[in-house]
Amino acid sequence: MKINHNTDELVSDMADGIKFLEPLESGVTIFGSARTKHDDPYYLATVELAGKIAEGGLPVYTGGGDGIMGAANKGAFEAGGKSYGLNIVLPHEQALNPYTTANHTFDYFYSRKFCLVHAAKAVVCMPGGFGTLDELSDVLDLIKTDKLPKIPVILFDRKFWTPFHEMVKDAFEAYHMIDEHDEDIYNIVDTVEEALEIIFKKGA
Fold first, then answer.
1. How many CA atoms lie within 13 A of 147 on its CB side?
2. CA–CA dist 204, 188 (Å, integer)
């Protein structure tokens, strides 16, 4: 079977990302949709949340693009904190937002996601699409299999994330695809204050 990747390039991409992270302090990684508009309540909440995280002394990590990523970097940047963007090369989108204090660009989603997850002392998932769901699933699986410490995982906006939670309870757990109470790995919140309480009380 032919793998549609250059193995040497992938290894180099991963190594360069790890090298970028080595001198940096772990912080809070914020995932969410790149399509979120700047006047959207989720965007505004992310700016506020990231600003409070930065004021609390923790760096903020994002994928470096627009939408929720740009909101998180903006909040941390404008609060005078450390605002890191781990961007990726894409054909038609994903320009680096202007709110990073340091940034790195990846060629591969795999190495970028690895670095975003392993830089995290806590993870916040704002509403998003397939990419956000992929990132969330990866984090939950790594925690479940003890490949990642039991860091806080926060899903922001109960209305948005309730269908996901119901799938976990009514399908995965009911059909014994996961262990009972595996949903306790994540927390669903509705406010910035709730998210901050979890981040700063659970060891981030």
1. 10
2. 17
pTM recorded for the entire structure: 0.93
Collect all residues with Cβ–Cβ distance below 8 Å to 199 and sequence separation of at least 6. Answer: 28, 53, 56, 58, 122, 124, 152, 154
DSSP designation for 59: -
Give residues with Cβ within 8 angstroms of 99, minimum separation 6: 70, 73, 74, 76, 77, 78, 83, 85
* Mean pLDDT, the chain, whole residue set: 92
DSSP state letters, 74-89: HHHHHTT--EEEEEE-
Q: Is residue 134's pLDDT more than 80?
A: yes
Q: At 157, is the pLDDT very low, low, confident or very high (cuts 50, 70, 90)? A: very high
The C-alpha atoms of residue 91 and residue 107 are separated, in whole angstroms, by 11
Is it the case that residue 93 has pLDDT exceeding 80? Answer: no
Rg (CA), the chain: 16
Predicted confidence band of residue 2 (pLDDT cuts 50, 70, 90)? low
Does residue 175 have a pLDDT over 80? no
The structural domains of the chain, ordered by start, are 8-158+186-201 (3.40.50.450)
* Residue 195 and residue 165 in contact, taking contact as beta carbons nearer than 8 Å: no
What residue has token string 């990590």?
61
How far apart CA 186 and CA 123 sit, in angstroms, is 10
